[in-house]
Design a protein that fits this description.
Length: about 500
């Protein structure tokens, strides 16, 4: 079966389900967790339907720092098991499942006068522990180099705008970085679709139990009732809307968006400790479309869950105030081109601060059999999905094949010498892996499709066409805000809007 997702396939799938509404598993939520669950279940042979009320990666999964973590932060709080799990999952993504979407990213802590000896020693010890985690997880240094101290000149090569005065060099460690988080979600959903899953965006679950889900097509208003042998709620911060017995305590994390030029060609994650803390850092890192993101905050965010959270003014000040002492020229609000915020789906506990709430995931089963999977990290989505499907099978008394997701590459996955043979510019291979050839073929067939979608933007019209034809984009927002991340800068979004509209006009 093809992995292509598009409007025609969606219509067909909805019609088929209208004729025969009995399936094995319904997954609610099209973030990284739900897409991972759909892939896991489909590969085990279950007839699976995923429903997402907006678009793939509409929720938290597109607001992350896009890092594939080795779990160092968990180690700092003594959680060795989850740190190890994170490092193992990072290795699986880098090597097998998504080597095209994840690359090694050096992380640089500049040794500046503000970083006192004790703090520097702690960072060094943390990086050494990260090396041990990597080794224990079986990830070779050839894939992610070991940490080291670098000279001032090397620190400045990696992060050219760092303050030179008093710079004693830097501490460097390596982690994984996604080309973009939303692209991982789309690749997961498409791989699931290729294995036979029905992936339905703009379909909302309006009610769910362990064996029935009421659906509403948000494009037509039509409703549909599915009978399922198991149902998994993977709706992240919205999990309590689907199962009211679940109580979450979301925490907001904010990033700012800059032009890469503001950081002078940064090629590492420039990492600066938050004054007075030994475990919190802000970091600036290179990102898609010639930009740099600067994050990250951790703010209690009680109250109703917005569709799109927004940064608070004091978070913007905090990020600038923390990074600026490490820079030669301070950045100001005038340098900021955009900002974004996401809500971490943390389970309610007795902890005082959201920063203390466990980032571990939880699988919970309600009395009527509805399974909820929540928490965790983007990095650990695969393990979360495996645990959720195991729980759903056990609960429903279903027998299915064992989990296979650690060995199945996602659509486009390519690495090593095969990657070198893909005849396409590197920026395309990072986005599409071995499917990059399809974009190049479109350019050759129609040279106009090689035009950038807006001046200075590294996305071409052929990529918008591919997103409509194969990546399930149904609206211009899907193209601008999730298949690409052009929309993170409002001015760029406005400039690319006509090209997004033209892509849908061509598809009609
Ligand atoms: C600021 C920030 C930075 C982070 N950085 C990292 C990082 O660098 N690395 C990392 O590993 N992790 C990171 N994380 C954690 C990671 O992003 C999340 O754990 C993960 O994305 C959660 O995914 P999810 O699929 O569970 O939820 P979501 O992505 O929120 O998906 C839930 C989906 O359910 C849909 N939905 C809700 N209700 C319904 C309904 N009734 N019917 C149908 N659909 C519905 C929503 O539209 C949404 O798309 C970060 C988190 C934040 C907030």
């Amino acid at each position: 079966m093809t992995s292509a997702l598009n409007a025609a396939r969606r219509d067909r799938d909805l019609l088929d389900l209208g004729d025969d509404p009995r399936v094995d598993l319904v997954v609610i939520g099209g973030g990284v967790t739900g897409a991972g669950v759909a892939l896991d279940a489909t590969l085990r042979g279950l007839r699976t339907v995923l429903v997402e009320r907006h678009d793939l990666a509409f929720g938290t999964s597109r607001w992350s720092s896009k890092l594939v973590h080795g779990g160092l932060r968990y180690l700092a709080s003594g959680k060795v098991g989850i740190a190890h799990e994170s490092a193992v999952e990072r290795g699986i993504l880098l090597r097998t499942t998504a080597p095209h979407l994840v690359r090694p990213l050096p992380q640089l802590v500049p040794l500046l006068p503000g970083l006192r000896g004790g703090q520097a020693a702690l960072v060094r010890a943390g990086f050494a522990a990260g090396d041990a985690l990597r080794v224990a997880a079986g990830t070779p240094a050839g894939l992610l180099p070991r940490s080291r101290r670098v000279a001032a000149a090397e620190a400045l090569r990696l992060a050219p705008t760092v303050r030179r005065e008093g710079l004693r060099g830097g501490l460097q460690a390596w982690d994984g970085q996604l080309v973009d988080d939303a692209r991982l979600v789309v690749a997961l959903a498409r791989t699931a679709a290729g294995a036979g899953a029905r992936v339905l965006t703009r379909v909302e679950a309006t009610a769910a139990t362990g064996d029935r889900v009421e659906l509403r097509d948000t494009l037509t208003g039509r409703t549909l009732s599915l009978r399922a042998r198991a149902v998994i709620n993977a709706t992240g911060v919205w999990a309590g809307e689907v199962d009211p017995s679940i109580s979450l305590r979301p925490s907001r994390g904010t990033h700012l968006v800059f032009d890469a030029a503001a950081f002078g060609g940064l090629s590492a994650a420039l990492t600066v400790p938050v004054p007075g803390s030994v475990s919190r850092f802000v970091f600036a890192f290179p990102a898609a479309h010639g930009r740099v993101y600067l994050g990250l905050t951790d703010e209690d965010a009680p109250g109703p869950i917005p569709d799109e959270p927004r940064p608070a003014e004091d978070e913007i000040d905090f990020l600038l105030d923390t990074i600026n002492p490490a820079l030669r020229e301070p950045l100001t609000r005038a340098d900021i081109r955009g900002s974004f915020a996401g809500l971490r789906p943390l389970l309610q506990t007795d902890a005082d601060s959201t920063a203390d709430i466990s980032r571990e995931h939880a699988v919970l089963t309600s009395p009527d059999g509805l399974v909820t999977v929540v928490g965790g990290k983007l990095t650990t989505y695969r393990r979360m999905a495996e645990d959720a499907v195991d729980a759903a099978l056990a609960n429903a008394g279903l027998v299915a094949a064992a989990c296979r997701t650690a060995r199945v590459p996602l659509v486009g996955a390519v690495s090593g010498a095969r990657r070198d043979r893909v005849e396409a510019p590197p920026v395309l291979v990072e986005r599409y892996g071995d499917e990059a050839g399809e974009i190049v073929a479109a350019w050759l067939a129609d040279p106009a499709s090689r035009e950038p979608v807006a001046p200075g933007i590294d996305v071409t019209a052929a990529e918008f066409d591919f997103a409509v034809r194969a990546e399930g984009a149904l609206t211009v927002d899907d193209l601008l805000d999730r298949r690409s991340r052009i929309g993170l800068v409002a001015a760029d979004r406005a400039a690319a809007l006509p090209a997004a509209e033209a892509a849908f006009a061509r598809a009609r």
